Task: inverse folding
């Protein structure tokens, strides 16, 4: 009788206990996140430890929290989705505030997740924890759409879903979620998050308001449209084009709305919002439809815009509705409202409104009489006047530099612009060739946006060339991210216009006071070419004649690159001041 050998006992490696950090990453994954940005810190290590066990999530670490926020901002804009941002308590959290302010101004859905001191230390100052703030959420409430807090592990999935839903509800925007260190680190007795639902709020217009808006537009003699960033965020470009062509209404785009309407369309007023001729044209409309813009400082030509006709305003942000000008306010997502207007307006050739709107006031608004130019002719005449103004200001260097950038960029490219004079030109004069491909810091106006934003855009659209544009002052905010670009081998070309200081502030001070405070505006700078090369990033110093060719070569090469243009650029001036 034989006896079968007794099998050797199987050794099972101990399972790594899941923690609150795992619940966070599982929740983000269940909601569709595959890329997160951030920078680790002591209290947030539970989040970063959990990333090691999440092979489906790509972590992109930047060198400064503010830059990580800018990268997340551009990623969210480019994808029209949510970009998670992971940071630590106190200084790390607070360093994200300028980026979150820009995300709020630009309607970028950044989900910022920060750590907190252990639960026992909440309330401020009792235990003296490193990085402790008396009231950390209070720093974020004036900046973000919503603040979410977690105190136990079981709250994490629902809190992440609620924050995600808030960020992606119209209008998109940043949110803040914080979780104490010990909750992130403690083992959890909660099942793996397999499914999580977040349903962004649908913001549909009220039917009776749409009916009245359609009546006014259909009866207008000179309808004009001003399209803002809300059109781009909502993906409403098709509806905007159809509405403009139905009404034969000229369309201007705000700086944040660039690309929402075809630049070379016969009805395109382009983006000359800082030009008084263009401001006058908008003022003379008997019905001005403002879509996805709050008519803030830049969109209203520094609050000099004075509409003489009736204003209709479609705006998803209730706080911006009629905040600067009286209007028939339509609280709605831009795409939903434009689609509803199209359904209400008559088809071409039909005119159910025999009575036209009265002129307001009659002496300023002229009807389309037999000798009046067509809308297309009026647009062409306006743009010719703008070009004539520029021709008289001897701004060849500036115009040629911007034209060289445009010529070097493929039509599919994404560009991200810092607060620099060339970007101010681009707001008005640059054709992005497509929607959602031009991102700038003109919402909040902080320095340092261009390069880290371009890194985020490159991660969101890896098949497209990406250009960042900064001045030398703004570039100094972001130099550390050359290491990030090299580490992740991101195909971003960074154009640095080196004019020796804060160029736009130099102009502002000279215009306002007749002189500039050199100690405030003039800067000692590094050798940007040598510095980039020290990071292993190819760089070249160019000049206005070689700019286009050097940019094109850099954009065509794999990986990151830097092009430095030493030049002192000037801003254009308006033709005339308002009455």
Result:
């Amino acid at each position: 009788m034989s006896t079968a050998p007794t099998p050797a006992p199987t050794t099972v490696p101990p399972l790594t206990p899941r923690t609150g950090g795992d619940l966070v990453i599982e929740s983000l994954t269940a909601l569709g996140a595959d890329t997160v940005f951030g920078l680790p810190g002591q209290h947030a290590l539970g989040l970063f430890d959990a990333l090691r066990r999440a092979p489906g999530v790509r972590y992109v670490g930047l060198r400064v929290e503010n830059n990580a926020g800018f990268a997340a901002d551009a990623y969210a804009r480019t994808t029209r989705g949510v970009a998670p941002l992971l940071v630590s308590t106190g200084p790390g959290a607070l360093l994200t505030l300028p980026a979150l302010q820009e995300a709020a101004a630009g309607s970028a859905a950044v989900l910022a997740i920060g750590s907190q001191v252990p639960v026992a230390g909440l309330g401020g100052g009792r235990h003296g924890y490193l990085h402790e703030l008396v009231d950390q959420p209070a720093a974020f409430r004036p900046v973000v759409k919503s603040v979410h807090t977690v105190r136990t592990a079981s709250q994490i999935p629902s809190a992440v879903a609620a924050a995600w839903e808030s960020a992606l509800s119209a209008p998109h925007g940043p949110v803040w979620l914080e979780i104490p260190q010990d909750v992130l680190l403690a083992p959890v007795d909660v099942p793996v998050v397999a499914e999580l639902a977040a349903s962004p709020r649908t913001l549909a217009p009220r039917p009776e308001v749409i009916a009245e808006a359609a009546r006014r537009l259909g009866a207008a003699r000179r309808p004009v449209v001003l399209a803002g960033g809300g059109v781009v965020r909502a993906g409403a470009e098709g509806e905007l084009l159809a509405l403009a062509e139905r009404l034969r209404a000229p369309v201007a785009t705000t700086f944040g709305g660039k690309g929402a309407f075809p630049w070379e369309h016969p009805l395109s007023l382009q983006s000359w919002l800082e030009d008084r001729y263009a401001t006058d044209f908008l003022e003379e409309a008997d019905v001005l439809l403002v879509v996805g813009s709050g008519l803030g400082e830049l969109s209203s030509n520094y609050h000099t815009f004075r509409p003489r006709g009736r204003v209709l305003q479609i705006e998803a942000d209730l706080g911006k509705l009629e905040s600067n000008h009286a209007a028939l306010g339509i609280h709605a997502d831009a795409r939903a409202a434009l689609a509803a207007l199209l359904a209400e307006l008559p088809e071409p050739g039909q005119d159910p409104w025999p009575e036209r709107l009265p002129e307001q006031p009659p002496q300023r608004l002229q009807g389309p009489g037999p000798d009046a130019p067509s809308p297309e002719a009026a647009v062409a005449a306006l743009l010719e006047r703008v070009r004539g103004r520029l021709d008289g200001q001897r701004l060849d260097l500036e115009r040629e530099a911007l034209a060289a950038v445009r010529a070097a960029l493929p039509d599919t490219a994404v560009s991200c612009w810092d607060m620099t004079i060339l970007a101010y030109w681009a707001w008005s004069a640059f054709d992005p060739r497509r929607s959602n491909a031009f991102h700038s810091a003109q919402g909040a106006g902080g320095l340092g946006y261009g390069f880290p934003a371009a890194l985020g855009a490159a991660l969101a659209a890896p098949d497209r060339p990406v250009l960042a544009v900064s001045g030398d002052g703004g570039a100094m905010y972001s130099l550390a991210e050359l290491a990030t670009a090299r580490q992740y081998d991101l195909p971003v070309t960074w154009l640095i216009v080196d004019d020796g200081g804060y160029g736009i502030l130099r102009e502002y001070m000279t215009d306002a006071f007749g002189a500039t405070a050199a100690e405030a505006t003039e800067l000692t700078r590094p050798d940007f070419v040598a510095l980039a090369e020290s990071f292993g990033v190819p760089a070249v110093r160019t000049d206005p004649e070689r700019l286009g060719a050097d940019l094109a070569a850099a954009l065509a090469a794999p990986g990151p690159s830097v092009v430095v243009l030493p030049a002192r650029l000037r801003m254009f001036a308006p033709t005339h001041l308002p009455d």
User: Anything to note?
Assistant: DSSP finds 23 helices and 18 strands in the chain. Residues 20-185 form a domain with the Rossmann fold fold (CATH 3.40.50.970).
